[in-house]
Write a structure and sequence with these properties.
about 160 residues; single chain; about 0% strand
């Protein structure tokens, strides 16, 4: 039983779409969510939370970049690992390991908040990609029905203008 596809060709369209979805989710989940978690952590540690425009833009930007990178990794995994469960588990482990290392200076409770945020990102990316895949499969089915109903020819091949 093989868990990997041959590395003949990477589906660049799938990687690009996954990267864009990951970047958008990165802004919403990792960026805005990360900034919110920072505020909670400041309260927990008894510090006065400071909310500045520059700090917020920086955190949202890095959330978008992390989401974009995660989307690229997800798209590449989609190209090489056909089994959805194995692909999802590998992606989840990679994201959690990266997050755990990125916030290693924090106390364990604070680190776990960022890991939970990463889990939300991974689940959202998987759900959106599954729905996108289902829509693509539905479009393929509809295209196949059109080809079958027209006898495999498009309307321009029988036109009198040709």
């Amino acid at each position: 039983m093989t868990f990997l596809r041959s590395a003949k060709r990477v589906d660049l369209k799938a990687v690009g779409v996954s990267a864009l979805i990951g970047g958008a989710l990165g802004i919403l989940v990792l960026g805005i969510g990360g900034r919110s978690i920072m505020r909670v952590i400041a309260h927990w540690e008894g510090r006065v939370p400071v909310l500045t425009l520059g700090g917020t833009v920086t955190v949202v930007f890095f959330g978008a970049m992390a989401g974009l990178a995660g989307g690229v990794v997800h798209g590449l995994l989609k190209s090489f690992v056909p089994n959805r469960v194995i692909r999802g588990a590998a992606f989840l482990l990679l994201c959690i390991a990266f997050t755990w290392r990125a916030v290693n200076a924090l106390l364990p409770r604070s680190r776990l908040l960022f890991v939970a945020l990463t889990l939300v990102y991974v689940i959202a990316l998987e759900v959106i990609n599954m729905q996108k895949g289902d829509l693509t499969a539905t479009n393929r089915k509809n295209d196949l029905k059109k080809v079958v109903s027209t006898g495999g020819c498009n309307r321009f091949t029988h036109s009198s203008e040709v």
